[in-house]
Amino acid sequence: MSVTVRVPAKVNVQLAVGAARPDGFHELANVFLAVGLYDEVTATPSPDGLRITCDGPDAAQVPLDRTNLAARAALALAERYGRTPDVHLHITKDIPVAGGMAGGSADGAAALLACDALWGTGAGREELLDICAELGSDVPFSLVGGAALGTGRGEKLTELEVGGTFHWVFVTATRGLSTPAVFREFDRLAEGRDIPDPVASQPLLDALAEGDPDALAATVTNDLQPAALSLFPELTDTLAAGRAAGALAALVSGSGPTTAFLARDEQAAEKIAAELRPLATSRTARTAPGPVPGATVL
Ligand code: ATP
User: Fold this and answer.
1) Would you say 102 is a known binding-site residue?
2) Gene3D superfamilies this protein is in (predicted)?
3) I need a labelling partner for 175 at 20 to 30 A (CA). Which of 7, 85, 102, 103 fits?
4) Which residue's CA is the nearest one to ligand 1's atom 16?
5) pTM of the full structure
6) CA–CA separation, 29 vs 154, rounded Å?
7) Domain 3-160 part of CATH 3.40.50.300
């Protein structure tokens, strides 16, 4: 018997970053949108204990030890329910690694749901969300999907209504960016400046509720973008190329280096992707709709 869970990537349509807290984390106001690029995690009983395998174009960059978020999720659930984590987790990886699209977090949420179903633990949704929040700031959203506002360090979620489907293009870069390094650069650039408390933008929430791509394009923001561009200046050209190809908005996705382009419709997204694919800074350019549902047992 095995259980497979499909889980989406995310884009932040707003990422407002506050000053660093005493615990080193930053207070955030994060508006997440789940988008149709997916990983799959299959959980199968394993007689020789916890085992992780992975395939897909970025598989070589995925750790197969207990630092993998999928492994950490299985261990956390096993510990709560007093059982041995005798499970083989196979990750079919399609979400770019270290791309600012929460791929690792997605696998954590998927593994948790898959092990929960395989072991029949009967954990409720609140308990699963609790474990997700312990695993990482972006993990609860990967379970929930759709669209949500994340506050605290991003893990306290309020689900949001969205009035339509938005069409995106995601360009992966030829090298990765580490999320902690981008936050350190944010702190360096912010030195000596007053950082306002992060708050969700009401015009942006209205644009989502209306499903209006022009209004969303006018309101998307990412406070980590200057830090990501400072560490990866070539991304500035990628963003400009996307705007020239007709994107309504161009932004760094989360901590980058994936860049996200909002298109008017599916056809426009395909055209933008075709124009961005040959760029020297692009590894891939893919289209995806959002919002889509969170982690789902197949
Ligand atoms: P975020 O958007 O949440 O900041 P990200 O998309 O930039 O994250 P990930 O793909 O989640 O980055 O990976 C960041 C690092 O986490 C990787 O370089 C890898 O070492 C580690 N990692 C742990 N588990 C996984 C996993 N299941 N898949 C990919 N990377 C993982």
Assistant:
1) yes
2) 3.30.230.10, GHMP kinase, C-terminal domain
3) 7
4) 104
5) 0.95
6) 7
7) no
